[in-house]
């Protein structure tokens, strides 16, 4: 049985023994193991049912650890690390040979971040190794933002969730790589494109629109797989919630709304992501609201499209992927 606990020493004990446990971060919970243990890394892929071509993010507690892991740090990467670490930014950098191909899906680059969660930072500082950690959900399903979400996904196959409470940012980190030293945005996330551009200037988003989960070739950042973050219930995304709601009047509908909208459906449940119209608050509530609606066995979830700016853009990215189930 899985144990929910705040005991950092117990977490260290499991990790030192090459076991996989779940850890909290400010974005989502991760499924963590010692990057130097083949046994632990294999167990992460096995637990998540994740294809091996989809690489893992390495979590460190200090930028000093980069020298063990990467060959070089482009200037713009250093600027981004200084601006956002600890925080929800993942940098994809040229890896050293010491980083196993198992972690990187055979790529010559490795994805790295310093998460901004007090329990996990303390844990990382006590360990003699960094932690590889994908989001702690089965491949393709909604990411977990509470310890209970993780326990519901993996009741039997993990010894422990380090319980750090609700994830404050609530969507995954923003991923940036470098192609000939030019920064490229691989995954929209908890740090907005605009915030990134304030530090390093304009950045392009790698277009992954043609990639689907049945693509056999490894995508640049499979976080960009079109089917991802999907609830089991069919979800539709719309600019016009009222018009769409009228098409489903006789059905059990879940509404996933940025702010409150009056609907007339007789059988409906509403999740309002931010009463004050804050994108940040909406992002932090997004996955928990999707989890709740998904448990109600509704006929359909109608989600409101966000304005396509700031974190609204990252939220729309996740909602669009959630329509592809
Ligand atoms: O917020 C987060 O990033 C969370 C927490 C736990 O840190 N982690 C997370 O991991 O979202 P995961 O495995 O669900 O997503 C990692 C993404 C994948 O899309 C993967 O393809 C991409 O990072 N990635 C990892 N290594 C890469 C590399 N070398 N090149 C390009 N993309 C990479
Ligand atoms: Mg994930």
TrEMBL record:
The role this protein plays is: Required for the formation of a threonylcarbamoyl group on adenosine at position 37 (t(6)A37) in tRNAs that read codons beginning with adenine.
> Which positions fall inside the YrdC-like domain?
5-191
Localization (cell): Cytoplasm
Q: Which UniProt keywords apply?
A: ATP-binding, Cytoplasm, Nucleotide-binding, Nucleotidyltransferase, Transferase, tRNA processing
The record's similarity note reads:
Belongs to the SUA5 family.
Q: What class of enzyme is it?
A: transferase
Keyword Isomerase applies? no
Domain of life the protein comes from: Bacteria
User: So what does this thing catalyse?
Assistant: L-threonine + hydrogencarbonate + ATP = L-threonylcarbamoyladenylate + diphosphate + H2O
What is the organism of origin for this protein? Flavobacterium difficile
Q: Which PANTHER family does the protein's record reference?
A: SUA5, THREONYLCARBAMOYL-AMP SYNTHASE
Q: Fetch the NCBIfam families from UniProt.
A: L-threonylcarbamoyladenylate synthase
Q: What is its EC number?
A: 2.7.7.87
**What protein am I looking at?**
Threonylcarbamoyl-AMP synthase
Pfam families named among the record's database cross-references:
Sua5_C, Sua5_yciO_yrdC
Q: Which InterPro entries match?
A: DHBP_synth_RibB-like_a/b_dom, Sua5-like_dom, Sua5/YwlC_C, Sua5_C, T(6)A37_SUA5, TC-AMP_synthase_SUA5
